Amino acid sequence: MRVGFDVTQSAKRFPRGIARYINSIAPKIEANKGNIDPTFFVRGGKRFLLGFCPQESAAHVACWLPLGRPTAAFKLDLFHSFGNHLPNSTDVPCSMTVHDFRALDTSEDSQQKRRSRLERNIEGACAVICLTKHGKDRLQHYYPDIDVKRIAIVPHGIDHTIFRQRSHESVRSVVKRWGIERPYLLQLGSWFEHKNLRLSMLAFCRSRACIEGMELLFVGGGINSKKRKSLEEFAVTNGIGQRVRWIDNVPEHELPSLIQGAHCLVQPSAYEGFCLPVLEAMAMGTPGVIANATCLPEVSAGIWPAFELSGAEEYVECLDKICFDESLRSEIQAAGVNHAAAFTWDITARLTTQFVSQLIATELHKTTIGDTFPEFAHNTAET
After folding, report:
1. Which residues in the chain are classed under CATH 3.40.50.2000?
2. Is the separation of the CB atoms in 340 and 158 below 8 Å?
3. With a cut of 50, which residues of the chain have pLDDT below it?
4. C-alpha of 129 from chain center
């Protein structure tokens, strides 16, 4: 079975989100491909970005394709997009991984182009992978007539060789290298509006964590200098300008130590497609708090305290509990480590391979697709 995978969005200087997903899953699919013969594609206009791919990812990209009819020359049985694009026209069945529905769930005019593209791609796909049950629910909300048998839930995984608990000395050396001397709370991800950095600052400045001398560290970036200045001014206005740290990018090999060194990870985002940092922090024994929004309670499995986004007071209460209730911290840390252990990239790759194999059998031989595609379960054991 010949399968083409679009990996264009893996080509990033600083891989986050979809890029990290592709860079993690593509080598696993190549190494454990079973009965499929994978070919990895980068869209024609983006091939110059291959220089930004990690070496292990770039080695798996066999060729590039234009946006037109890419499949005839490669005699593919299926084309699957790991990102946000499907070919404008093609002669084989197509499927895709939908990472989130923010383009449909938000109403800003700036989202209109992305919204149209997402709708077009979903309507052109014969089957879809969602990352969470929340994502599947949103897909069914917008497409109530979609055949539920053509939706699979395959979550992200964790590289447990990287996100593992480290020695106190190695963590401390990385933390000191960044000039961090105080205990700190950590928020990971881009600094866009829906990530609610201002809400984090409001909660932090009212919290016992702030009173007792902790810092708030934002690691991510991705915004222009004007927006960054506005955030920095907000911190100053609220009296915490010297207690908030801003780091645009952290080398991947240092990120785990910064996560483990944090007293607490905070994720107050109003919208997430999966939010891998929650599981990565859990794997390293770092507790955290989340917003009760989109997929966050599902990914955290109810282990981390969740607050409503209607105001900062409940956020403050969650912060103070997780930071200073040692019994609660220990309970959450142990439960988090156990929960995160069920998520691996090997499982993600295996379920994705099963998905495309079953889909090809269905499309080629017109067989019944069965009750559903194989789906991830929290008690999944690695086999």
Report:
1. 2-157+344-365, 168-340
2. yes
3. 48, 52, 54-59, 67-68, 109-110, 367-371, 378-383
4. 14
